[in-house]
Write a structure and sequence with these properties.
It is a multi-pass membrane protein. This protein is of the alpha+beta class. It has 16 helices and 24 strands. It has helices at 21-50, 55-84, 86-107, 124-155, 162-192, 204-224, 238-255, 277-293, 297-303, 309-314, 334-356, 363-391, 591-614, 621-645, 651-674, 681-712, and strands at residues 7-9, 14-15, 18-19, 194-195, 201-202, 230-232, 320-321, 324-325, 400-407, 413-418, 422-426, 435-438, 444-449, 452-457, 464-473, 476-483, 495-501, 507-511, 514-519, 528-530, 537-542, 545-550, 559-567, 572-580. The strands form eight sheets. It has a four-stranded mixed β-sheet, with no helix packed on it.
Length: 713
């Protein structure tokens, strides 16, 4: 019975010629992929804006998580094939997966530790600890079930249902893409909502909670179909046999390394004393393909930065698409949309055209082109980053201060920065850009307006921006130097707004749902945060008389000082002083880099799997699948190394560095591919079958000869 495949099969109803059980498996996969990609879409922004990690740490932790997700499939395959079987493995790890998603949702609840109700967690370490625990559980769950679900679906078909099985895998792949596409559209929208008990924040609990709910649904749906599944019992993992064969060959060669032992054709032939020839030959074929995998992780190092560096790049861009406001993490949807479009176009149009041109576009050449396109995509990303950097404001360094002058009066004013550093003239109700000074050199300000003159000493801390309010009044010059307390561009495309009351009376200001408080004459408010790409209603109460106006469209990533010069029931006079310009580089400029990278993915990923399967023996497909997943994991580890070791201060330079590294690897792979000889595993296995048959006949003859001799005696 050792050579038979054992299975437990319950009653299997069918629908349109397909086992009904596969519909539970397809729905399970859709929900699981929605859960994974939905959570992953908002993950890097959660790190940056909720946990307050910088870009580099956010990128490192993101890629560490992705690497874990592609390392754990090896563990899942071993558990399923050697211990629990696919069904129990999927159920067990899905429970762990669901718990992990729930823990992530809880970790993002701001009110969990916001005891003083100031809108910020008081114990960020607790949130970090819960996040790490949640991510580890998710990595174990999603990675562990990854190699099991598709194979479990294939197990449901009989041997005479090859056509249905093939269609099942097409539907299965479609479910994966639909789940990832919908989740990367929906979860960023959920994240963009505001929720909370004591203070309103970005709704990460909802963005993580919905994927957690989908994972729970995935588990329930899968378990409901339990009685219909055909459950193949674990038969041992071929990867373990391969590793043991390789280990024995290395050990045996080491113990027989002296010259007295004759050399063998291949180092794996040293395993012949313990393992049969078929396993050794099959392992040789697998290792030949795995050797070609060595350069491939560099492609994945670039590809998976869509969810980290490219998403962070989108936060500094304009997401206004007319009637639609695109969130930075929603730009990732461009990839699955283009995949759905490009795969049939490449298969039905591009490849046939290349064939008609009589170009021998072999699988390894396709993979090389895919790597080159990925490098080109990062060059495009670098060009976009250069344009973004041109629009970013320059903030003061540690030993510098910046001062912006706002003249609130009806008279022109002149400000001299002493000792004789600079003189600036400002007309009535106008303002200047920020002016940079070395803090140690600036001693005082000499202000002249109308017939009045005033000297104001300064003692600035350095590394900050300040606003100088001046107004010539009947009693003299009013001046106040305000600390802006803003040293970076607003995050997530939000806007910062503050008000200056240029009226003689105290006013109360509310913008949208945000109350700025009571502002006395010539006083200013603190900056408040508002979502980008919108207009807001501003309500002003002056001497119990209300007035209101609608703000201008604020754009994304800007900061404004709104000066209220007049506000009554009949009229309002407000001016917008731009402290930080809005994002002006449109997110649409990311589409070319996504398009080029997706084209690279189509010719690289699809072809790579096809090539691997065509060059591997029938019972070693799982080994190559594990090798492919491992290449993705190593690619994410490369990002960790480069992001940690790189001393580049400019993001565009890092993009160019990754492009250059992949280009070098691409050339190395092209050389390796040139010397590769394609094989036909089926032909080799047929030869092995023939040899084994001949050997069996010989053994039978040898077995019968002594019997014949005995009969003659």
């Amino acid at each position: 019975l050792s050579g038979l495949t054992l299975s437990v099969s319950c009653f299997q109803p069918s629908c349109f010629g397909y086992p009904l059980s596969i519909f539970f498996i397809v729905v399970n996969e859709f929900c699981e992929r929605f859960s994974y990609y939905g959570m992953r879409a908002v993950l890097v922004l959660y790190f940056k804006y909720f946990l307050q990690w910088d870009d580099n740490l956010s990128t490192v932790i993101y890629h560490t998580f992705v690497a874990l997700c592609y390392l754990t499939p090896i563990l899942g395959a071993l558990i399923a094939d050697s211990w629990l079987g696919k069904f129990k493995t999927i159920v067990s790890l899905s429970i762990i997966y669901t718990i992990g998603q729930a823990v992530m949702s809880v970790s993002s609840i701001n009110d969990l530790t916001d005891h003083n109700r100031d809108g910020f967690p008081d114990n960020i370490s607790l949130h970090v600890a819960l996040s790490v625990i949640g991510l580890i559980l998710i990595a174990l769950g999603t990675g562990g079930i990854k190699p099991c679900v598709a194979a479990f679906g294939g197990d449901q078909f009989e041997d005479d249902q090859e056509k249905q099985r093939s269609r099942f895998f097409s539907i299965f792949y479609l479910a994966i893409n639909c789940g990832s596409l919908l989740s990367t559209i929906i979860t960023p929208i959920l994240r963009g909502q505001e929720c909370g008990i004591h203070s309103k924040q970005r709704c990460y609990p909802l963005a993580f909670g919905v994927p957690a709910a989908l994972m729970a649904i995935s588990l329930i749906v899968f378990v409901i179909g339990s009685r219909m599944y055909k459950k193949v019992q674990p038969q041992g993992n071929v990867m373990i046999r391969v590793f043991k064969c390789i280990g024995f060959a290395i050990k045996n060669r080491f113990w027989h390394r002296s010259p007295e032992y004759p050399k063998r054709e291949h180092w794996l032939d040293w395993a012949i004393e313990k393992y049969d020839k078929r396993l050794i030959v099959q392992t040789k074929m697998v290792l030949k393909v795995l050797f070609l995998y060595i350069p491939l992780p560099m492609f994945w190092a670039l590809f998976d930065q869509q969810g980290s560096r490219w998403t962070l790049q989108a936060t500094t861009m304009d997401g206004n698409f007319g009637a639609i406001q695109i969130q930075p993490d929603q730009m990732q949807t461009v990839n699955p949309i283009l995949i759905i479009i490009m795969v049939p176009i490449v298969d039905a149009v591009i490849y046939p055209l290349i064939k008609k041109c009589k170009i021998n576009f072999t699988p390894l050449r396709k993979i090389t082109v895919g790597m080159f396109l990925a490098a080109l995509a990062f060059v495009a990303a670098a060009l976009v980053q250069v344009q973004i950097d041109k629009t970013l404001p320059v903030f003061p360094a540690g030993g510098q201060s910046q001062i912006k002058i706002i003249n609130l009066g009806a008279d022109a004013a002149s400000v001299t920065f002493e000792p004789q550093l600079k003189t600036v003239n400002v007309t009535s109700k106008e303002w200047t850009d920020y002016i940079t000074f070395e803090t140690s050199q600036l001693r005082s300000l000499s202000i002249t307006s109308g017939n009045n003159r005033k000297t104001q000493t300064t003692n600035l801390p350095g590394g900050n921006r300040h606003t100088l309010e001046i107004k010539n009044t009947l009693s003299g010059i009013f001046s106040e130097l305000i600390l802006d307390n803003v040293t970076s561009k607003p995050e997530e495309g939000n806007n910062l707004i503050r008000f200056i009351n240029n009226l003689p009376d105290t006013i109360n200001v509310t913008m949208g749902d945000t109350y700025f408080g009571a502002l006395t004459s010539l006083s200013d408010s603190d900056y408040k945060t508002f979502s980008g790409g919108r207009t807001y209603n501003v309500a002003v109460m002056r001497n119990s008389v209300p007035c209101s106006f609608t703000s201008k469209p604020l754009g994304f990533g800007s900061a404004y000082t709104i000066v209220i010069n007049e506000c009554s029931e009949q009229t309002s006079d407000v001016v917008y002083s731009e402290d930080i310009p809005p994002n002006t580089v449109h997110m649409a400029w990311q589409i070319p880099q996504y398009f080029i990278l997706t084209c690279g993915e189509v010719v690289f990923s699809v072809t790579g799997l096809e090539f691997s399967y065509s060059q591997a023996p029938s019972n070693m497909k799982a080994v190559l699948q594990a090798g492919w997943q491992f290449a993705v994991a190593v690619g994410n580890i490369i990002v960790l190394i480069v992001a940690g070791a790189s001393k580049l201060s400019e993001q565009w330079a890092e993009y160019v560095l990754f492009a250059a590294l992949l280009l070098v690897v691409c050339i190395i792979f092209a050389v390796m591919a040139y010397f590769y000889t394609y094989i036909d595993p089926n032909e080799i296995e047929a030869q092995l079958d023939e040899e084994e048959k001949k050997q069996a006949n010989k053994d039978e003859i040898l077995h019968h000869k002594p019997v014949e001799a005995d009969s003659r005696m």
